[in-house]
Write a structure and sequence with these properties.
With 154 residues, the chain is mainly α. The protein has helices at 2-17, 27-47, 54-81, 87-102, 105-115, 119-153.
Length: 154
């Protein structure tokens, strides 16, 4: 009850005051920032040993900010990378693959939690780091292409 409220307030404030200032040309960097905030949220949960509510509130805020920043840009980049004629088919195939990978996540999370409660969060950190690595791989060729077009324009 309190954590969804904190998450909603955080997202609302970001939507009103921060997101409108973002520039479209930096969308891949915003995704990386969102993933980094989510990593920080999970690190807070891994390192928290006390039963204090403050680190959990901090993690909730970081997670909400990370999701709000990363998800819209991720979906936009995906939609823009698929041509209009094949978009519906590709999205349905993508949904099937997402379901295949997400379905065992609960079982894996439960099994790893029994071993050590921090392992599911560490796995999420690893997955987010992989996402950042993929984005860095994608952004590098894009930045080289934009430099080439700048030189040609001059």
């Amino acid at each position: 009850s309190i954590f969804p409220a904190i998450s909603s307030v955080c997202m609302l404030l970001l939507l009103l005051f921060v997101i409108p200032r973002f520039k479209e040309k930096f969308n891949y960097y915003y995704m990386m920032i969102g993933f980094t905030l989510s990593i920080c949220a999970n690190i807070v949960l891994v390192l928290t040993q006390t039963k204090s509510i403050i680190p959990i509130i901090l993690s909730t805020i970081l997670s909400a900010a990370g999701m709000l920043i990363a998800n819209p840009y991720l979906e936009t980049a995906l939609a823009n990378s698929i041509d209009d004629e094949n978009r519906a088919n590709m999205f349905s195939i993508l949904q099937v693959f997402l379901l295949l990978f997400i379905s065992p996540a609960g079982i894996i999370g439960g099994l790893t939690y029994k071993i050590d409660p921090r392992i599911p969060f560490l796995l999420m950190i690893c997955a987010l780091l992989i996402n950042i690595g993929i984005l860095l791989y994608i952004v590098k060729p894009l930045s080289k292409r934009s430099k080439k077009t700048q030189y040609k324009a001059q």
